[in-house]
Design a protein that fits this description.
The chain has an 8-stranded parallel beta sheet with strand order 1-2-3-4-5-6-7-8, with helices on both faces. The relative contact order is 0.16. It has a single domain, classed as Metal-dependent hydrolases (TIM Barrel, Alpha-Beta Barrel), CATH 3.20.20.140. By secondary structure, it is an alpha/beta fold.
């Protein structure tokens, strides 16, 4: 596969506060800009992480923060950590809550605790009119009822990040008001990802987003070559999405960038 040419992109999910970037974070951000990535949404996984991504957003043009507690980190949350999240939600540079959600793959947090924190994020997002960034791993049967309940309360804005479900799940989430974001997993040739690729083909164009989930999920073309994923690599995932959907790469760039600006209420320059 040829290296994608430069278009304009928004990486809607990159953990730039992660330790993997401690030695060269500035170079990573510079490479992203050279690759045409005009904006990066940096989600948090804890209260401390939330403060870190907010500092990044406040000190780097084009970086935006999402504050929250990831489901696998909820068990380690201190008693006042949720109040810290709520206090950060209105700060300049914060464009979303999350990442939050449910995870049955790992056994780091009791499931009832995950559900409690997911409900808190959903309610706070609706109260503050913020989009919510949703993580779901092996837990769609538990996640969907909570999303339905939230949507019944009022408008629900957000995104299923690094989507790993099938077409039926994508269809329902779109119907509930959410966007669907695809990461490097959509580039993997394994047969187990065929349902994911089918979902990628049919998600409505106005609900489609692209992300890296850096430093995780290196696109197939770079596996064995890159030590980690980073925002500049979003173009590889985008190229595969364009192929699956039968559209030009530039068209996909325009559509996903417009979608991200609208969802996260970013300025026209993002």
């Amino acid at each position: 596969m040829a290296e994608p040419r430069v278009s304009l992109w928004i990486d809607t999910h990159a953990h730039l506060d992660a330790e993997a970037f401690d030695s060269d974070r500035e170079e990573v951000i510079a490479r992203a800009r050279r690759a045409g990535v005009t904006a990066i949404v940096c989600p948090a996984i804890s209260a401390d992480s939330s403060e870190c991504v907010l500092r990044l957003a406040q000190t780097h043009a084009g970086l935006y923060a999402a504050v929250g507690i990831q489901p696998n980190d909820c068990a380690q949350a201190a008693p006042d950590d949720w109040d810290r999240i709520a206090g950060l939600a209105d700060r300049p540079g914060v464009v979303a809550l999350g990442e939050t959600g449910l995870d049955r793959h790992w056994d780091y947090t009791p499931f009832a605790v995950q559900q409690d924190y997911f409900d808190r994020h959903l309610r706070l997002a609706q109260a503050r009119d913020l989009p919510v960034i949703v993580h779901c791993r092996d837990a769609s049967a538990d996640l969907l009822p909570m999303l339905r309940e939230a949507a019944a309360r009022g408008p629900l804005r957000g995104v299923l990040h690094s989507f790993s479900g099938d077409r039926a799940m994508a269809d329902e989430c779109v119907g509930l008001g959410l966007a669907i974001s695809f990461s490097g997993a959509v580039t993997y040739p394994n047969k187990k990802f065929e349902a994911l690729r089918e979902a990628a083909r049919v998600v409505p164009s106005d609900r489609l987003l692209v992300e890296t989930d850096s430093p995780y999920l290196v696109p197939q073309a770079l596996r064995g070559k890159a030590k980690r994923n980073e925002p500049a690599h979003v173009t590889w995932t985008a190229q595969r999405l364009a192929e699956l959907r039968g559209v030009a790469l530039d068209e996909l760039a325009l559509q996903t960038t417009a979608n991200a600006r609208r969802l996260f209420r970013l300025g026209a320059g993002a």
